[in-house]
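Task 17 of the worksheet. Students: predict the tertiary structure of the chain below and write it out as structure tokens. Keep your answer in the requested format; marks are given for formatting as well as content.
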Amino acid sequence: MSKLVIVTHPSLKDSLINRIWVAELANHSEALEIHSLYEKYPDLNFDVAAEQELLSKYDEIVFQFPLHWFNVPFALKKYIDEVLAYGWAFGPGGDKMKGKKIRFAVSTGGTKETYESKITLDDLLKPMAVSFHYCGCELLPSHVFYGASSQPEEDAVVSNAKEYASNILS
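Model answer:
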């Protein structure tokens, strides 16, 4: 089964984590498609019909993004609001996302301890999870890199990227 990875990072070339994740995934282009929203739509004016057609082609979709201020990036929220439309993803006749497997790949600035001491990452991602459940999707376990702001060693990021690719390809 081919998979779609939707990358939502406003400055991918400047991101150690997401850039290395994308580079690792690019080694598996026969098994997945990488779709960068900021690269395709720098103005964030999504071609809703084209995006819906793209989503329709895949049974498994990964949403890869950095957490910004304890939330998904603006572009991803806008994408979900516009593309997962009434009558297409939910509501009468809105069954086009039903049965799709959804996974989140998230990088955070804060450490795991930061999230476990105040609010969990799962709590922060709950609105996304509920939205996809509402559309009839199945959520798969998330892949996370904690502590991007702590200047992680590149070897640790590369190792995490290999684990990420292995998780979504298995």
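Marker's comment: Residues 154-169 form the longest helix (16 residues). The radius of gyration is 15 Å.
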